[in-house]
């Protein structure tokens, strides 16, 4: 976090994304994500948060604009350059997206097996270590995803996202569907892992507590653009009506603190 | 000083060029004896890409120094470290300690301390229980399979019961019956299946006639081909072919549909709203099959007889008039009735199996595929079994 400034690992410029025959979802959007920060990305439902994340990771095609990850233009990169970038990021999908035919341990091992040539012993040990790092007991290793609770699914999905020791992790609503205690633990986990592993975290979230406790910076998406970005005080000072009602509305922490 | 250069180190790169090599990214671990203590100097990148080489290096260090008093590991020259490197360092420490020595780490950069501390806590739990005796495992599998067969039979019987009571409710309160759904299903499994059923049974009829002609001709019994085709198609082949096609085409689709509804909790949602999934989903589907199957069987049998006739005419030189008059003598209404009577029972079997298997789907995609396969395999097996039972029954009542 000391290197904030020009060291952007993700640089998005004038991005336009839209689906055929409809008005663009993202309209000339620009955003920087700096090395070592946790960026919280908020916006109304349907504003295009997930679309931006899916465009950056290459699941949704862009119409115009530039996306650079690790200073490589991903739109123009060769297949092998793209693969080496993909190896350096990990993605936690909203529903976990665990492979239902594989056990928990095999899920975590899957990307490692794909990219690295390791002995079975090391593969087992590293995958188990990852599971322990996300706070799961060793006896979940042979369970199947359908046997896991929501919180455990998210943890396994995080372990899989972290399997290759990525530099960036994309989290799509990591705390949705978790109870407040579970969500708080998950926030702490992300914070701890970000510190120990030196991760850059791009987090799409609706959870005000996550935004207050773990995010270094917040970017707000509205009208297809990033209307404001900065730490919590910037958000609280913003006069944009949506930002105002989001951070200073009925459910915001500021209001809660005032009532208490 | 001895040095363990990384596996596949570029030829020509001298060992003295350790610093340069480390900058190029190779992991290194040098050992030197320092009195009774072993000094290990780590350098380079200790990351996921190099984990395979690093594991080899560490294994060789452990193998060369089976008994050491104490070890100092200097991590000062390590350029990069991630969880793979941290875990391998931890593995080295543990095996050195297990050999009776003590080990210390020096010069670890500040920002890697958390990582190493975290690796230190990992994999402390006892390894998973060892595998059990293969014989016991095999016996357990057999036992479980037998139990499973029993459960399957129970589930099928329960489904037939549930369908009967759902039918009773529908008769008592006709307004609750889902007629729209049933008509929609009849369109799917009946009307839309007509072209493929006609095509396949037409071909089968032609093949039967051709084979018959070819072999019967050798002893001048050409004309009996008509008897064979007529009786075989009407009594057995028509209904069996249609049943097998319906099981593959519609039974599998029912199972997949119900199974994915189960996975997405739609069936639970129905239950909580006070609907019985058998009433809403399964009864209309099974009734649609029971109505569609005889229609398809009739059409299929006619197509097969037509194919047989065409083949007799083109290949056997038998005029259509002869074929038809011979057919009239050869078959009785009984032959036709037997095929048609069997059709709804086969439809019931296919529908019941498809529904039972669909509701047995668990949360995973693999289970959906497995149950869909099971549904097709079991319904085809039971259809053929039922056909055999019917054959014995009709033989004993002289039909």
Structure in a nutshell:
The complex is a heterodimer of chains A (260) and B (399). Chain A has 260 residues and is of the alpha/beta class. In chain A, 38% of the residues lie in helices and 23% in strands.
What this model shows, in words?
Chain A is of the alpha/beta class and 260 residues long. Helices cover 38% and strands 23% of the residues of chain A. In chain A, helix 6 (180-197) links the parallel strand 7 and strand 8 (200-204). In chain A, helix 3 packs parallel to helix 5. The longest helix of chain A has 18 residues, at 180-197. The radius of gyration of chain A is 19 Å and the shape is globular. Chain A starts with 7 loop residues before the first strand and ends with a helix. The model of chain A is unreliable at 1-5 and 255-260 (pLDDT under 50). Chain B has a five-stranded mixed beta sheet with strand order 1-2-3-4-5. The longest helix of chain B has 40 residues, at 224-263. Chain B is elongated and about 110 Å long. Chain B has 13 helices and five strands. Mean pLDDT of chain B is 85; it is low at 1-23. The N and C termini of chain B lie far apart (97 Å). Chain B is an alpha/beta fold. Chain A binds chain B through residues 100-101, 112, 115-119, 122, 125-126, 128-130, 132-133, 137-138, 141-142, 144-147, 162, 164-165, 195-198, and chain B through 47-49, 51-52, 55, 82-84, 87-88, 91, 111, 114-115, 118-119, 121-123, 125, 128, 362-367.
